[in-house]
Amino acid sequence: MSQFKKFILPSFLIMLVLSCSDETTVFEQNEDTFSLEESQSVLTNSVSFEKSGVLDIFDDEATSNKSGKFANEQAGDYPLTLVAQITPPSFTGAENLTATHVQIDGDYAYVSYNTVDGGYAGAADIIDVSDPTSPSVTSRVYSRSIDFNSIQYSDGFAYIVGGIDSEQSALATANSIIIRISATNGRFDTSGILFGFQEGFNANDVVLIGDSAFMSSGKDGYLTEFNKNTLEIINEAAFQDLRSVAIKDGKYMVLDASFGVRILNSDFSEASQIAIDSDFGESEKRTLDFTDDKIVVAEGSKGAGVYDFNTGAFQEYIPITTNPVNVSQSDIVTNATAFNEGVLLMANGGGGLCLTDDENGSTNIVGIIELEGSINFVASKGDYIFAASGREGLQIIKMNKPSDSLEERCSVSPRYFGNSRLNVSQGEDLSYSGSTRLREVTISGSLLLCGSWTVRDGITIGNNGVFELSGDLTVARNNRRRNITVGGGATYRVEGGNLTIWGDLILGDNSTLEFLGSNSSITVHGDVIKSNSATVTGDFVDTEGKF
Predict the structure, then answer these.
(1) Average pLDDT in the 458-482 region?
(2) For 24-54, how does the pLDDT look when each residue is reduced to its tens digit (9 = 90+)?
(3) β-strand 421-424 against 440-443: which pairing, if any?
(4) CA 20 to 30 Å from 322, out of 5, 179, 252, 355?
(5) How deeply is 493 buried, as exposed, middle or buried, from its count of CB atoms within 10 A (0-12, 13-18, 19+)?
(6) What is the DSSP string of 418-479?
(7) Strand duo 353-359 + 362-369: pairing
(8) Smallest Cα–Cα separation from 75: which of 53, 54, 56?
(9) How far apart are CA 34 and CA 331, in angstroms?
């Protein structure tokens, strides 16, 4: 569950909010509570690879009872790997910051943090993801009096919305705030920060279009259009309980927790509406998203609701299928959703990050990705997923989509639909293509894998066995290391692929590791243990210098 601060307003102020807002005040000065992280070591040490490596996707039974019985488990699609985690900032008075939002723009990820504890504090990170396999935090800004609830980047500036206690601040004229801070070349600059204020319990979402910034400001608040260069108000409309704003085809969609989705014209007059009978919770993060002609609404304990954009007709609920142990039922709620080429990701708070896809026109729930933390927000771009995971920070996940060229080269190889423990017996000659996650691979015969694969518990190539890889393969993870063992006289052949081992590569007597072509790389995070009679041939990039 992702929660924002609640405010109790005096009755005369509530009457004012319901009629019209005060004129927003803009300040062109810094508040003394803003500061930049000056220590490079702090930024560097914020990136953790402790849990990097293969991620499982659990079905309902596995996540609910943790049975650990995988003997009859089938192999599955979506061979995901955890690239890295960004641990949340921490400073005196704000030791429990949680990741609330992430936006990806070009080579950088912009992440906001708030605190749900007493008081107000926030932070924001800029993370260089130009090489997502090796992210780095390039800049960090702190505030000791403002919760940072959402962040967007545009044209050299980050726009952060959140909450502030106006009664305790000499700066604030209202509790909802929008901040414009310079962010160029991956660096924040606290000189010339602009602040704007609006009535409402707490600003929770911001969208940037053209020269405008659109902000929703929570209960008894507003949808407000600001000039994004000056933060002066262009347009505003009062609503009872706004949680999110999205823009599609010139229409402005807002999630009003007191009613449902309201679809507005550019002048904020209401064009249509979708009434939703769901409990959106009190002051909790909820978003809406869209794809093609569908609107997907994060509806808390109900999961995600899918509606027709043109007619408003209800289509389906995608439920939260898990009931993990030791998690409060109130924390198992859908906070946000994201799309990536037919995949829908659901940030279900304490219920984890759910992955679904479209199967013959109907929704297929694949399962819950093996992540820790309360998933507050999720974004996805290209081959990567970025999950804001509360006190676990930002988690960067690689989807390992197979390239079209690999699929074409291995077009004669069928997809693999067997057991997650792939066993190739002596005398068998098998080949498979696709994008698949496995638990274990044992090869006594011959096996060719094409595409993208993950293996959780290691690979053993028996004596005189042959294993060929055309594509990408990741084995194990940093905090659960496993090995690839190439037995006596066995051959491991890699062509044009990327091999990552969170463990050791063991080459037995007279074994051969062979690289074909010139486009292969190997990353061994353990040791290369090589018999004197083993041979390594071909051109490859040794990323960790282990050969």
Answers:
(1) 94
(2) 445 455 545 689 999 999 999 999 999 999 9
(3) parallel
(4) 5
(5) middle
(6) SBSEEEE-TT-EEEEEEEEEESEEEESSEEEEEEEEEESS-EEE-TT-EEEEEEEEEESBTT
(7) antiparallel
(8) 56
(9) 31
